[in-house]
Each structure stands twice: as structure tokens, then as C-alpha cells.
Amino acid sequence: MRTFNFSAGPAGLPLSVLESAQAELLDWQGLGTSVMEISHRDPRVIAVFESAQRQIRELLAVPDDYAVIFAQGGASAMFDLIPQNLSPASVHVLNTGAWSEKAIKGAQRHAAVTVTGAAPYVDVPALSPVSGVDYLHYCHNETIHGVRVADIGTHQVPVVCDASSSIFSEAIDWSRHDLVYAGAQKNLGPSGVCLVIAKRSLLNADAALAPVFNFAKLDAEGSMVNTPPVFAVYLIEKVLAWITQRGGVSAMKAAAQRRSTSLYAAIDQSDFYSNPVAPAARSWMNVPFLLANPDLDAEFVRQSEAQGLMFLKGHRSVGGMRASLYNALPDAAVPALIQFMQHFEATRA
Ligand SMILES: Cc1ncc(COP(=O)(O)O)c(C=O)c1O
Which stretches make up the Aminotransferase class V domain (predicted)? Predict the structure, then answer.
């Protein structure tokens, strides 16, 4: 039986994608073997990579002068690899939570860093137009604190965005973004791949770093500088087709808004549950909430799991609970969660 998976990541994948991969596991394309067991240089594998890249371009309306790359090392590697590829002397970071902090630490290893924003992460700080640095970095959706930057504004420098926990849940305005990256394991597929979409004019094939981490080289070689994580990209290709079948990014956005709005409404209506984030900055993907009495946290988790509502325990740095509402979450999950929350409150308050 499939449970409702509220994990912050790695997160649930669409059932039809898992079933399709299961059906092909022993015999892919009549080869009598799985896609995992053959060369990444096989034309059929290259076709999977090309299909994934084409669908990413279509779904996100990526301009032609941007590269679409499957990189390795997760989104965490990008905290260093982006400065190593872009060779900035100075970087400005909008700090809206724990992942912004990691981006700051990564950038500090390579450049002078200035910052707007600090804890507690319950709102998006006002950001004046940025100039005089080599780029601005921000995290579109803070997975731990549940803070979403609705509008980054316009700046006189390139804008780099960590969209790990929100990619494919809403459109990206490419007039305001020069590089967007996202670890795959929330809205895109399994872990092991980080999607990087970058304006080609920013990239430098001569940057002083290992060729497997050089974005210009990855772009030139179809993300196959070395043996890539083929099975992960194969699953991503299927997830992208699933997004298209469901109506594309606009349908994902409508679902995200519908689900998060109903969950925040249930939290706000109650004195038993609370979320500290300013309404305009609330995440559509990750909804952290506290119980008025933290002594009940363990009981809440135990009872919710008994109902098939899985992985609601909050991040250790924030406490309480967190419901992650990624694209693949079935529609019935949030009503079931709200019903459980109301029942728990009625019996425990
Ligand atoms: C917003 C954000 N950035 C970066 C990361 C780090 O991703 P990875 O574990 O792929 O390095 C995460 C992981 O949850 C995240 O949510």
C-alpha cells in the first residue's frame, strides 16, 4: 500500500513513473537488460538525456542561450561549484534561511560576500536593487523554514537561484534569472543529479576546476563528461513526461497553491497549531507548523504514521512538524492530513 509521503526530500515520486520503471527494470527497449546496465554512450541512453533536456526547456520555457545541465554532487556541491565556475570577486546573498546560510558559507570560500537578511526566518527581507558585485544569490524556497521569495525584483547583476525545493512548481522569469539550480530529489526525481540551467555567456570552459564539474564542458558534452547517473536521469525523464501529461508547470502551480492554502487555513484557524511565517512569504511546497504543546510532538508523529501520513516530523533546527507538498503528492493527501490534524486537536487540546 502506498502511503501519503510528506517527506521534505528525497520525496515521493509519481506512482505511474515508478510503475513504468518497474515494468522496464528487467527489459528496457527489448534489450533484455535495464537502462542501468548498459553504456551511457548507447544512442538510446543519449536519447533519454536529450528528451529530458528538451522537456525541461519546454516546461520551463528556457531561452536558447541557456545551457541545461545534469551536474553531480547535489545542490550542496553548487554552493562551491557556482563560484568556481563563475569566478566572482564579490557576491551578494539574500539570506532567508538555512540553505541560504550554506550558500553564504560556500561563496565565502571563493569570494567576498555581503548579505541581506538574518534569522529568525519568518519573512523575506526588503532587498534594494543590487549592483557592484559579480552576482546575487538567493534561495527561492527555503525547505526548512518554509519561506518563499515571491519576487526577487530586478538587479543590475546576474541573479543565481537555488530552486531545489520549488523547481517545476511554478514558472521561472528568465528575464530575472541567469542561473537556476535544483537538486533533483524533491520535484524532479531521485537524488544524484542537480539540474543547472545557466546563461551560456556566464560559463567558462577554462575555469580552474575538474572537468566533470565544469558547467561549460558539461554543456558541450551533453552532461556526459564522465559516466553520469543514468538511472536518475532516466527517472527524471519520466517525471517530466508526467508533469506534461498533468498540464505542465501551470497545473503544478495551481495544485501547490490549492494545497498549501488549505493547509495554512487549517493551521491559522486553530489555536493548537501555528506557523510563524508572514503570509506573503509562506512556502507553497514546505509547510512547517508547531503544536502548542511540544510534548505532544512524538504522539502526533506516531498517530499520523498509523494513519499512513508519513514523515511529518519537522527539521531538528525548527522543531514541530513539516508537511512537504511536492508535485507528486496525491490530491487526497492534504485533506487527509487536515482531517487528522483536526481529530488530533479535538482529542488532545
Ligand atoms: C533549498 C535546498 N538547497 C540545497 C539543498 C541541498 O541539496 P543536496 O542534498 O542535493 O545537496 C537542499 C536539500 O534539501 C535544499 O532543500
Answer: 4-332
